[in-house]
Amino acid sequence: xxTKRMYEIAxxxxxxxxxxxxxxxKGLFFKEKGLEEESKINANVKLTLDKNKGFMLLKFVTSGNxxxxxxxxxxxxxxxxxxxxxxxxxxxxNPDEMNEQETDPDVLYISLSESHIxxxxxxxxFVLLSIPTQHVCANDENGESLCNKEVLxxxxxxxxxxxxxxxxxxxKGLEKFKEN
Length: 180
Ligand SMILES: [Zn+2]
Known about the structure:
It contains five helices and seven strands, in the order αββαβββαββαα.
């Protein structure tokens, strides 16, 4: 089975009602889907597909973890993934037309003659959306930040030097003004 097929669901053969699927997604999957940077993601997605007459409800629940860089000190940290996403897939005669008009990104129209649905784009998107956008090192039991202290100190030094430099240039500017 090729990688592409792995994320296709042959819904036409499913009985009405709920069906569960589970996907383990790692760095390679995200790279193949177009993520440029090397990612350390270990995601698990549980998909519940509820098949009804003329439409399907898809519920994606993401879990797992991802290694990211701390926003403050750049240390590698592991963050937990946890989120839920719902998609409605409707089977109709004129899907292209309806997809153009539809403003809700969580509604997709497919043709009545369709028998398979590829869920890989959703898996990719939803896992990435589950990664917290802001991440800093946690605090230890004493409430002290676990950020890399050396890096923070360097950053502070750089900042104060920069401020000093700016203050100096202002003075120089003023002196010039006085001389005239
Ligand atoms: Zn940090």
